[in-house]
Write a structure and sequence with these properties.
alpha+beta
Amino acid sequence: MLQTLWATIREGKIELLESTELPEGTKVLVMLLPDDETGFWLQASQTSLDAVWDNTENDVYAQLL
């Protein structure tokens, strides 16, 4: 099962922000987030939003506005 845990880097080591039991040898994937997370997530989601809303099938909703 996938689980998301928040962590920070302190003195070159990854420190979890919450306590959890992780078995020795557990594989992890580390994703670095920019300091301004809001801008990152807005940019990352823009492609999906464009794919959903930027199509001729949804033009009918624009006419209702």
